[in-house]
Amino acid sequence: MTHLPVREQSARPVELKTSKKLHGLDHLRAFAIGFVFLFHYFILSNGQPGWLPEIAEFGWTGVDLFFVLSGFLISSQLFDTIKQGHEISFSHFFLKRFFRIIPAYLVTVGLYFCFPFFREKEALPPLWKFLTFTQNFGLNLKDYGTFSHAWSLCVEEHFYLVLPATLVLYQSINRFTNSGWLLLALFALGFGARLYSFNILYAPHIGHDNSWLYWYKYIYYPTYNRLDGLLVGVFLAGIYTFRPTLWHRVSKQGNLLLVGGIGLLILAYWLCKDQQTLIASVFGFPLLSVGYGFVVAGAVSPSSFMYRWESTLSTSIATLSFAIYLTHKVIIKVTHRLLEGVNWDSNVVLLVCVITSLLAAFLLNRLVEKPFLRLRHRVVHD
Fold this sequence. Notes:
69% helix
């Protein structure tokens, strides 16, 4: 849905076409948006309550989980079309994405630009950057940090543009079976892009005032440095869709996949304690993505407890996750402003912010998201 972040951190509640609902993905979406929420609450509340920093310190990675989920879900839909022998329809794909994302996003952008009270910071980037989804390039977090977490949605929108076009190209030249090499090449290029960004763009600013701003600007936000999670999701979807025998063997170890993923995430936590080092900047993102990839693989494995565990709470939060992602920072800030002068315990204030954020997300979902999804069904017949 940052700084998410995530997209900050970003997840869309998309359902994989399957006869069995994948409850594990609902759990992960709920976890990811909760992680992102706590991270941003940590920033906006100056680290209160006192126990929050220990939990929120790694919360920025919730966006990486969202990227893996998006890569898996979106590519699974496209791969399913290919597997059935159909051509990918750009109009069908983009209309579905439009009705799912753009209405709620534009309403949120409108609130930010029309009502200054609904801002967590003073200044916004130019409107055209939000409308063209280019806000994540050259973002000055200090001077234009309002609605900064929309950067992760920019990354996903770029992914939505490139993925179907790439698949259509591979279909047209009949080289789809070799497309896995492209994934590996793009994954490897990510290391090179971040190495260049660190040594050439960021390093000259190390030691200067506000050097952290340049790290976010040149390394954290740009799309070309954040493709790892999406590529891991695409890789998982490829195995899930086109290698059923391999997937059947792997999915028998669902809980082991979850444990392995958590182990990699613990390693990534220590690697990324100081995000702005060369090792963390170049190798931290792919390690996080692979770790979350193992977790996602475990969540969709019938042998794992996450696959079998049904939770109305997880499903409800997952349904609201996009609306929470869009609005949570402004609602946290507004709630804090309304509670100024009220001598409440910091834990109570956090609880109130959770409630107000859920209510705002519920209203956005019911008044904007759901009506446009119904319209999408009539227009696209999905």
